[in-house]
Amino acid sequence: MRANGVASDLDLERSVQGLVHEAARALQLPEGLLQQICVTDSIYYTRFPVKFGNRVEVFSGWRAEHSHHRHPLKGGIRYSPLVSQREISALSALMTYKCAIVNVPFGGSKGGVAFDPRRYSTEQVERITRRYTAELIRKNFIGPGVNVPAPDLGTGAREMAWIADTYDAMHPGGIDNFASVTGKPVTQGGIRGREDATGRGVVLGLARGLEFVEDFPGAGLTRGLPGKRVAIQGFGNVGFHTADILVRRGAKVIAIGEWDVTIVARSGAGIPVRDLFEWRREHGTIRGFPGAEEELPSEAILAVECDVLIPAAVENVIHGKPLRW
């Protein structure tokens, strides 16, 4: 099993291709157009060295550009030991489709570096980020109006600030250099509300769905968020803000699963989300949180009895394979 209970043999790219072909048949798209849509335009793969003291470590990084039909291309950068070319390619395609569905004028892109940032110091992560950015700059895979990254799994405002600063240093005098990324700190040209935007979108979508509970009568749900028992897989930027906003809107977060553990608090008001956030900031894990009643294996989050399960970690967590925990 890979982190967060995702089986390693599940192929996101094959899954995305299958869904696209199914939609194309329903829409009766011409075969030639389907072939163009299904192929990623270009993928840059690089192996770059970074020196830490007296040793040198080599990292693998990618940036995929799925579609140039609109500019700039848009898509996050993820840091994870599970990053692969097929995953990055599939995620770049999903960015194209997401932007097209809501008519946002961007092409789809995605990037990543295969390493676990938890195992490196802040200084080392900065060195990796700046070196990766330099590689993207040399091949013109980043830039305002060209390709604009954003935070994703394992990255945040801090990494975006390093990327923007590196781009600015390598393009002296450019008046729009800091438009080379989004998701920057507000003090460096970022936008207020960007950090919690995805989590807020999850809550708004859930609230809207719960207005139509008659469409899924077998679930036995009542209308509205108040009182709903929610389990959330992932407590990163999306998971935390989703949980925080849900609690403020009357829901009860009873379980949170991370890469190393699932914590459960079924009684009372559930898990005190902001206290858990501070605990994780101090200890680097949600394990041992005193506000939890029970600790289970990471994969158990998918089997906790609840009204709503929110996957806020990685892809392919919902599948037909048996859980092993």
Describe the overall structure.
The protein contains 8 helices and 10 strands. By secondary structure, the protein is of the alpha/beta class. The protein is 33% helix and 19% strand. The chain starts with 11 loop residues before the first helix and ends in a 14-residue tail after the last strand. Strand 3, helix 3 and strand 4 form a beta-alpha-beta unit. 39% of the residues are buried. It folds into 2 domains: 149 residues, 3-Layer(aba) Sandwich (Rossmann fold), CATH 3.40.50; 115 residues, Rossmann fold (3-Layer(aba) Sandwich). The strands form 2 sheets. It has a 5-stranded mixed beta sheet with strand order 1-2-4-3-5. A 5-stranded mixed beta sheet has the order 9-8-7-6-10, covered by helices on one side. The radius of gyration is 21 Å and the shape is globular.
